[in-house]
Amino acid sequence: MSVSYKYWDDCVDPDEMRLLWKYPEVRKEWIDAGENIGQKVLLSRDPEGQLYLTQTEMRAVAKIVLQRHFNSQIELEMICVIAEIASDRQLLAQKYNKKTKQTTIGIMQIEQETADWLVREIGYRYYDIEENSNLLFRPFVNVYFGAAYIKWLSCMDGKEEALDAFGTAQQLSVASGSGEGWTYWDIRVSSEDMEQLWKHPEVLKEWTESGERPGKVRFSHDSEKRIYLSRVEVKAVAEIITSRWFVSKGIRPTTLAALADICSMRFVNGVRARIGLLGIDYPTAAWLYKLVVDYKDVQYRAYKVVSVDDLYNPFVSMYFGAAYLAWLSVYEGRQRDLHFVIQAYMSGPENVSLQETGPLWNKFQQALSYYEEPKKKNRGSCCIL
Predict the structure, then answer these.
(1) How many helices (H) and strands (E) does the chain have?
(2) I want to staple 352 with a disulfide (CB 3.0 to 4.6 A). Which of 3, 42, 89, 343 is the partner?
(3) Largest distance between two CA atoms of the chain
(4) How far is the C-alpha of 382 from the C-alpha of 72, rounded, in Å?
């Protein structure tokens, strides 16, 4: 089925249109061109009649998508350069790749098969393209899946290799940053969870001393502007999660906190292929969400996990990390010790070697020492139950 647009209103939803009008540079450009708020806005056409986005419009779409869905983990310039090189910012661009025998679509030149895979396997489900594949021509939808693919590629070994896969390695770089609207705890975390954090005495002390106030608590940033949790915050989140939902499972908050140290170095967005604070991936979290344990109606549904984006909430990542630990602790119907569980969490239960006490276990023990009380550090317990 052919796709044809004339107005912006034909290819974006009302909320996206509202956000575009709020973008100062777009607003000025459109008003200068004779457009009016409340009326349909004409799409631009090049001399050959092809629909395209102006550079101002392209930057606005990319910025909105990155802030909404990717916590500004990808540089704005990266998206804009890819759009420029891949499609000349043409809305309906299509190119057939003889090597892959696939057709790339839209501004970011994303393959339909790739977009379907990102939905099915990785959990990028904000836009439902399975019911209508032509949605991929829409600017916000195309940039969303293009950015999702870049995010996945950036987790591959070697940044150059990852970006070469998108064809623009020389001009692009991935940045794990924090953009406007995503620097505050209160935006990512529910009001109920924030209330629990404010009630935690150590968090209250730390936040008060740093000048935070309810409704606008800042995340800490490192020198590369990556947001992370202090050890006080990590331990508090772990204590809240375990006390609410995992008391009967015997999951220690210090175990979860130590895992956050070694999985993500306490970075809220995770590191490389490990997503979020506890490094739990979307397929595993989605599986746990649907899991009924031992036919006893034990379910892990305190937090919804609709897409991978949910796992950038520290509480959600911690919750599903704890759920996975609980499942591993009775793997194959046998009670497992902490040595097995930690190896299984990091490498998969099928890759555990109980005969080896390698650097991973030593690293975990070191991280654990940061969170345990001095009198408990030398007890030598290897059981989470």
Answers:
(1) 16, 11
(2) 343
(3) 76
(4) 39
